[in-house]
Amino acid sequence: MIGKFVSRDLAVDIGTATTIVYVQGKGVILSEPTMVAVKDRGGKKIPVAFGREAKSMLGRTPEGVEVIQPVRTGVIADFDIAGLLLNHVICKARKESGSLFRPRVVVGVPSGITEVERRAVEESIVTSGARDVRLIEETIASAIGCNLPISEASASMVVDIGGGTTDIAVISLNDIVCSVSLRQGGTNIDRAIINHLRRAHKLFIGERTAELIKITIGSAHPSFDDQRMEVQGRGLSTGLPSGVVVNAREIREAIDEVLMSIVYGIKQTLESTPPELSGDIISSGISLAGGGAMLKGLDKYLAEKLGLKVTLAADPQNAVVHGAGLCLENRELFASVLK
């Protein structure tokens, strides 16, 4: 009976778009948008909704209620709101796992964050009830989650495309050999779609509609160009509700600048890779992870641009948290990658 209530340690991926929690021995039990709806009451922000409920309020909030995304470009931008969100998800995870004691937590962080940003993550997790916090770079966690042989003396290359960042790394012997971190991700694709609709169709749309377009007809490769959908928004010239039909080709062309920045980031990383390891990448190729990697045809697009084999992870959105979770389950094996 006592064993039922022992502390279950957690792995957390607090991303720009999504926060995911892995519970030791149970796997992923929670995946929610990284959003909090707050109401201003006497100068103090009071939370009224978290995650999916908060996201459903985007663009629909009454006066005095604001939907906040506390993580920007992969790092905590609003410490107080991030603390509220983390407290909510960690308490929820502890309740669902049946744990009564404060957990140890492993958190995925972007490769390029500063020491100040690292401390902000640690403090937010500790404030949320953790008794110990360890950080793991998201590219290493992604590689572990993709089942890449990172402990071997050969190169593994991973590209983790999140909501606000793209982290690219070549890994060997449990360490990063070279890496590039870009402040580009899924939210940049959404903004490119919003800007295209405004310029080409004089139609103003919100973030939720842009994301829906991306999921429905968004693609990186011409093989999906025959798709189309009707989009509704507000006409810029009339200010009235309006709708247009958009096709996949124009959306693909609108987001190509964002995708090319990822291509350049990968090329920059490859150019910095020692010659001895370059041959390994030719053989093993590149592994794609992160929610942004689920854009249709992206693996094919990158393979054609780079001339290398590109493989999409089996569960790209959860690759980071799965990798961090495996570190929880095998602490001795992965001790060197935890900070």
Percent range of helical residues: 25-40%
CATH class of the largest domain: Alpha Beta
End-to-end separation in angstroms reads 34 Å
The low-pLDDT segments are 1-5
Strand order of the largest sheet: 3-2-1-9-10
Number of strands: 18
Features:
disordered N terminus, 339 residues, alpha+beta, Actin, Chain A, domain 4, 3 domains, five-stranded mixed sheet, single chain, Nucleotidyltransferase, domain 5
How do the strands and helices of this protein lay out in sequence?
Layout (H helix, E strand, L loop, with lengths): L9 E5 L3 E6 L3 E7 L2 E6 L2 E7 H5 L9 E4 L2 E2 L2 E2 L2 H19 L6 E6 L5 H13 L4 E6 H8 L10 E6 L4 E7 L2 E8 L3 H16 L1 E2 L2 H10 L11 E8 L5 E7 H24 L3 H10 L1 E4 L8 H9 L3 E3 L6 H11 L10
Helix pairs in contact: 2-3, 4-10, 5-6, 5-7
In short:
The protein is α+β, with helices and mostly antiparallel strands. The protein has 3 domains: 2-34 and 69-140 and 320-337, Nucleotidyltransferase, domain 5 (2-Layer Sandwich); 150-184 and 258-317, ATPase, nucleotide binding domain (Nucleotidyltransferase, domain 5, 2-Layer Sandwich), CATH 3.30.420.40; 186-254, Actin, Chain A, domain 4 (Alpha-Beta Complex), CATH 3.90.640.
What does this structure look like?
- This protein has 339 residues and is of the alpha+beta class.
- It folds into three domains: 2-34 and 69-140 and 320-337, ATPase, nucleotide binding domain (Nucleotidyltransferase, domain 5, 2-Layer Sandwich); 150-184 and 258-317, 2-Layer Sandwich (Nucleotidyltransferase, domain 5); 186-254, ATPase, substrate binding domain, subdomain 4 (Actin, Chain A, domain 4).
- 37% of the residues lie in helices and 28% in strands.
- The protein is built from ten helices and 18 strands.
- It has helices at residues 51-55, 79-97, 115-127, 138-145, 186-201, 207-216, 248-271, 275-284, 298-306, 319-329, and strands at residues 10-14, 18-23, 27-33, 36-41, 44-50, 65-68, 71-72, 75-76, 104-109, 132-137, 156-161, 166-172, 175-182, 203-204, 228-235, 241-247, 286-289, 310-312.
- The strands form five sheets. Strands 3-2-1-9-10 form a five-stranded mixed beta sheet, sandwiched between helices.
- A hairpin with a 2-residue loop joins strand 7 and strand 8 (75-76).
- Helix 2 (79-97) packs across helix 3 and helix 5 packs antiparallel against helix 7.
- It is flat.
- The two termini are 34 Å apart.
- The relative contact order is 0.15.
- Mean pLDDT is 91; it is low at 1-5.
